[in-house]
Amino acid sequence: MKTSISKETIGTFIDAIYAIAVTILALEVPGELEGSFAIKQFSELLVEYALSFLILFALWIQHRRINDLNETLVNSAVIWMNCFILLLVCLIPRATTLVFSYGDDVTLAQLEASWNHGAAWTLSVFVDIFYVAVVIAADIGLLTLVAYISRKASGEMVIKTRRSKITITVLTVGVLLLSLILPLENRYVLLLIPLALMFERKMGNLIFR
Q1: How far apart are CA 66 and CA 165, in angstroms?
Q2: CA distance 92 to 150
Q3: pLDDT, tens digit (0-9, with 9 covering 90-100), for 119-178
Q4: How far apart are CA 120 and CA 8, in angstroms?
Q5: Rounded distance between C-alpha atoms, residue 132 and residue 123, angstroms
Q6: Which residues contact residue 202 at a Cβ distance below 8 angstroms, ignoring those fewer than 6 apart?
Q7: What is the pTM of this model?
Q8: What residues does 74 pair with on adjacent strands?
């Protein structure tokens, strides 16, 4: 027997997962800082917190917009797609923390050299790749979800949502690749991601008008 759940129930669960992820993110900020680098450490923690929060907030907005495109009842395929996306969403706070703690200025040249010579990845390379993989997988998961829903739904809103999601996925992948090309520490280039995610609708309208 096929499983079906109302889109309101799915929407409530989506809201709860994002709320829990953001709450855990805030609890990870330490209440006490010690040592001569306390101010620098605290400023980096604030940037890390802001980056994770904005990414989660932007993904939540996109997720809710896509969920609103569903019919009254959603089938098991949509349920499992949401499960996979939310699984990745819960990893984003930890992935961001790892990037700020162990990430470095990892470049495409370093990755190519490690790949060609069979060298083991350093911790910084592994952490950066893990972060990139989690964010891209979550974003592509949302793209897959809207593509699946648009097969059964129709209307101007569906078309606009699908177009804007395609646009933002391309931009997100571009920013992540840019972080491996520019001579800057990767974690600071990644601040461009939430900006792109939050303005997906406007960017999509500009490109497809």
Answers
A1: 9
A2: 27
A3: 555 666 677 778 778 888 888 899 899 888 888 777 777 777 777 777 777 777 777 777
A4: 47
A5: 14
A6: none
A7: 0.77
A8: 5
